Every structure is written in structure tokens, then in C-alpha cells.
Amino acid sequence: MISGAPASGKGTQCQMIVEKYGLVHISTGDLLRAEVSLGTEIGKKAKEYMDNGHLVPDEIVTDMVISRLSREDVKEKGWLLDGYPRSFSQASSLEKLKIRPDIYILLDVPDDILIDRCVGRRLDPVTSKIYHVKNFPPETEEISARLLTRPDDTEEKVKSRLETYKRNTEAILSTYVDLLNKVDGNRSREAVFSEIDSLLQRVQEDAVKSRSLEKSRGDLIPVNSINLNVEASGKVEINIPELNPEMDVYRIGTLMELVRTLALSFADDGKRVKVCVQGSMGEGALAGMPLQLAGSRKILEYMDWGEYGAKGTFIKIGSIGGREVDEEDDIFILVAPQNAVGNCIIDDMQAMTDAAGDRPVILINPRLKDLPGSSGIMQTMGREERLKYAASFENCYFFRLLYYAGTQYPIMGALRMTYPYRWDLYKRVDEPSGKERYVIIATFPEKPTGDEINDAFEGKPRNKKGSASGIWGFLSGILQA
């Protein structure tokens, strides 16, 4: 989809896009004239409104667009919607039918430039060619003498059209904000097209990658699938709302599902897994046990571990500590180890890793912030030593969902790393079937910053510097955690 105010150069860019990419150009103005000319049912309805001087209702315009999108040439070549949708109602109608573009391009030109372009335009009634008194004057005096100013190109009418355009654009931007790419239209046509061309090539590359993945794998691997390196100790970080102990809701059931999936995958490979939960660290009920983990041991005991008797043979449940390490254990999974105020789990963890030797110890969503209490219990090791030990666990898997500013939903994408591979940034794409998929839009050798993620979603070059702002600025804060 492409949008631009009157005189933004949208028509010129559409022509250049179609010439290079062969897309079917769909303009509602052209559609209306064609339907009326052909005398179709939709055209007859539209003509009634037009003859009476009324605007054609949204539903009729949408019917025309949908009818055009269903034709074979569109299915074969792809489509370029020019200046449509123009209202929230039209955008909603397309959304309900799962019709979404791969990209939404907005030509951005200052109002004073747009007004100057319109007021200075002249029409040659003989050739229908458009000139501009300053920017594109006629070739001869003869042509200049016959040029006309179009009725809509007065300053008053141009300003009115601009206000209408802005209202329409604001109404639909919320629908396509995840696909929005603003392009500076106050440049030469070649410079503007160069940027648009770069954006479209990126879309094309994403499509090729997706088809390649589907062909090689039969189906896309879910973006949050986990493939751990089990040769060394490490930590798994899953950052979604229900697994974030910083938030109001901490769904222990989701965490248990993650642990079960991991444990059973290792058991399928013939590994003996010890799943360990934080135990009590003092006298009294739940002493030293973070409330988020209360009852998790019982949940693990009662979970469904499959039909083949994995629990008790390949999978055993235990607590965090050196005494829990048995000779037959191959891998240890520590469920969300957390320091509690005045109680430090790090001592027990270190005893366990020392006893495990070279065997992998995997921390699932650890929260090892230093929380010393007045009791002095946590002072059995120095603070620097505690933090150094906690930091010694290298990320072997990381997954974080990315959301729009100010809300958790809808999801805009995800960030994923599987050791020892790269960091992949995914963009969420809605499928016509109502499902979703994730397309890689950027890769990084190290964990990207918020600015790098914002730049990738905006399609900026990797080496471009500058702080994120506007709707993208929110990511900078989120990704510092």
C-alpha cells in the first residue's frame, strides 16, 4: 500500500514501482471509472451516488477493491493499492478478510511544499500533460499560452484537501503501524524511488527466505522452538509476560510446560535429567522460597511425563543443592532459581555445579539479583563473588516477544538466540488464513540494542546512527533489562 497527500508524487512513484516490479496498480478512482464504464452491478450502484453528487459509500468502494484483488493477474503478479484504504471502516473491512499488505509506504512532504506544488501546477488541455510554473515549466511559449489551472488547484481548496487527507491517514495508521515506512518525499523522484526500491527489495528477500525455509523444512520451525547446546552449563531466558516475575502475573504452569518440554527432549536422547526446584532455606513455612515458586515441586510431581515412564527413570525431581547430585545424572535443569530478600540461592547453586563437575547445569529464567538482608545470611560470600558467579552462566537460549508502545498486544515480533548461533530478529506477519508467521528481518553477531532493533523494523541501514524516537522509542527501554 502507498499513501501520500495531493502533489506528494505518489502517482509518479506508483508508475516507477509498477515498471520495476510488475505489480498490478489498483487505484479506486480508476476502478470507479472502469466499473461505471463497463456497467457492472457495482458500477451501477456507484453511478447513482455520483450522479446525485454524493460520495460513494465505503462498502461499495471496498467491494470494487476486493473484486479486483480476486482476479488472476493480481494473484500472479501481486498488487499495489494506491491511496486505499482511506477510512478506518475500509481498513477494517480488509482486515476482516485477512487482506494485508507486506508494506505500507507513506510519502512525507511538508504542507508548504505540497501547497506550492499544487498551486503552481498547470494542465495542457491538448496533451493532458502536467507542468509546474517553477519546477517543470513548459517547453515552448505556445504550450505556455494554452495552459490551464485545474479548478482544485487553488490554495483554499488544496488546504481543505490536505486536512481531509490527514484525517483519513490518522484513522488508518493504527491498523498498519507495524508495516509503516515513512519516506521523505521532498526530494527528487529518483531519490525517493531509490529508498522505496530498497524497502521493496527487502520485502522480496523476506518472501524468498520464507519460501526457502518452507521448502527445505516442509514447515516453518516455530520461532520459539528450543535447541540447546548441552555440552556446557548455561541459562535459558524466556521473556514473555507469563514468565516474567517482575510483572503482576507469573504463570507457573507456563514455566512448567517449558521445563517439561526440555526435560523430555533430553530424555528422548537417552539423557538422565534431574529437574531441581528451590527448596526451603530456613525455619518456617516457605522460608526463603520466592512466592512465585511456591508449590512448583508438587506441580512437577503431578505433571504428565508421557506414556513411557520417563519420570522415575530418565527424569527425576529434586532440589537445588550439592547433595542432590547423583552419579547417574547427565543434565541438571534448575527451575527459575531466585535470590529472596535475606536468603541467597547462589551458595546452594555453586555447591551443585561443583558437585556436577563437567555435567551441564541449565538455569531456566534465573533471577539472581543481589538482595542482601539484615540477617547477614547472604554475606557467606562477598557480593562481588556472588555476582561474578551468577554472570558465569552463558546464555544458551534467549527468546523475547516485542510489543507495540504502551501495550502488550499485539505482538510486533520477537528476538531469539540459540547458542552458539547468531541473534535473529523476527517480524510478525499475519497470514490470510488467520494464522501468523515470523520472518527474519535482521541478524546480529551480538545481542542488539533497542536502537538497532528499531532501525531494523524501520528499514534503516545497519550502520545508521541516531536515537530511536516516536513509536519505536519504547523498545530502547524494554530491551535494557
Can you walk through the features of this model?
This protein has 16 helices and 16 strands. The longest helix is centred in the middle third of the chain and has 29 residues, at 189-217. The model is unreliable at 213-219 and 464-481 (pLDDT under 50). It has helices at 10-21, 28-38, 41-51, 58-69, 72-77, 88-96, 111-119, 141-146, 155-176, 189-217, 252-268, 296-302, 346-356, 383-391, 450-458, 474-478; strands at 2-4, 24-27, 79-82, 104-108, 121-123, 130-132, 180-184, 234-239, 273-277, 315-319, 331-335, 361-364, 395-403, 411-418, 423-430, 436-444. It has 481 residues and is of the alpha/beta class. Strand 9, helix 12 and strand 10 (315-319) form a beta-alpha-beta unit.
The structural domain count equals 2
**How many E strands?**
16
> What is the spatial order of strands in the main beta sheet?
10-9-11-12-8-13-14-15-16
Shape, per Cα inertia axes: elongated
Mean pLDDT: 81
